Amino acid sequence: MSVEEPYITLNNVSFSYGNNLVLENLSFSVHKGEYLGIIGPNGGGKTTLTNIILGLLHPMTGTVTLFGKDHHDFKEKYRIGYVPQRVAQTDKDFPITVLEVVRTGRIARIGFLKRFSKKDKEIVDRALDLAGIAKYRDTLIGDLSGGERQRVFIARALASEPDVLILDEPTVGVDIAAQKTFYEFLTSLNRDHHLTILFISHDIDVISHEAKTVLCLNRNMVCHGAPEDSLNEEVLRKLYGDHVKNISHNDHNHA
Amino acid sequence: MLDIFQYDFMVRAFEAGIAIGIVAPIIGMFLVVRRYSLLADTLAHVSFAGVAIGIFLSINPILSAIVLSVVAAFGIESLRNSGRIFGESVLALFLSGSLAVAVIILSLAKGFNANLFSYLFGSISTVSLSDLWVTLGLAVVVFLGVIIFYKELFFASFDPELAEASGLPVKRLNIMMVVLAAIAIALSIRIVGVLLIGALMVIPVVSAMQYGKGFRTTLMLSVFFSLLSVILGLFASYYFNLASGGAIVVMALIFFVASLLIVKK
To answer: Is 0.95 exceeded by the ipTM?
Structure first.
């Protein structure tokens, strides 16, 4: 793979649930080191897009290329780390410790019929440290707060040593103070560990402050570029309709 | 030495019982955490239809039970995956359906009611040497199946979506899990009985879960509770002349209540 080749490329991707077209002719690329924020209204196709990149859904038309390979032939799925939306509401009664959750991040990489090696255990320990949850390693995940559980799932994704990290509305159910440290953590992963990040959110403020590039999605791509160039009133109207315009103005005045 | 072990049939019952006591809660653990414990009862009823077929055709009922429940396991999983019926309804369909089949076959082949009772509630005096070998052999298969694919089965149970996103063949793992469950259940009905095997798979697991430990520790605790229940239950069954399945499950219940009382939340 050449240095210039993008990690993720979508070319004319469309997807519908029955007659409901949720993604229409979507084309874009994600390059190494990018911090891409994907925003759009609920039902705008954000989660569908995530599932297509993860290979959980297949596009009706168009192609998806991951690390230079067509997604049908792409086997190293663990290179894309995924932090799902429902982390805060995850099954609290499941008997599983923080360490056991984070170790699941290595399972696909280790492969069938092989055990955890010393190196695997070191990588898991490092992921626990990096996410700042090493002290909870033997705690049941149901006993943690939403913000702590969030970090457990990030550590889980990091344990697979991904090249790309995809986070789908990762701060739902996480309190404001924890959100701030969480965003700083993501920035440091992108800056210091050169991790490519796709951050999916409905929160324009967060995306415009945190992401280096932004992609606006409402069935088709409404904007794509640096946040300061892309998020103008016209784009916001296309995303959320007329009535949201003033609210977002107020938000900017506060910030 | 205890006089109980002078009898070959008791030795066989203990050997088969211990094998089942290990395998049942291991499978049960995976079913309980997936909120899928009803599968155990469903497959037990399917096994019963298999037993009826075996008796009717004069072949080893355990073997016909295993074959039928494995076939049903595939049927259940593919119907669930088709999305045409709710998962729960699929289980209801198979549970009542196989009971209906069993009853029809039993009414065609008249005159073995005493034998039938032993399959419903478990019996220690009826474990034949061939039953024992089938039980031990297949219990080893189930045990090794889970051990070899432990980390993948565990991941697919904890979070199937994440497991699939990271590249695991979740559907095939689920089918494997259900097939292993089918084998384990068909094996167990000789000792524990159709109506009670679900309890042996579930009660030790929910007892172990009271202690608030991780997956692996909970799994080992549930095997411990299950083995104790089987061993004490078989003793009680012998000395007080009780149906073995009932005695074993009541022991498991005692451990559950004790666990509730010991660990106060």
So the answer is: no
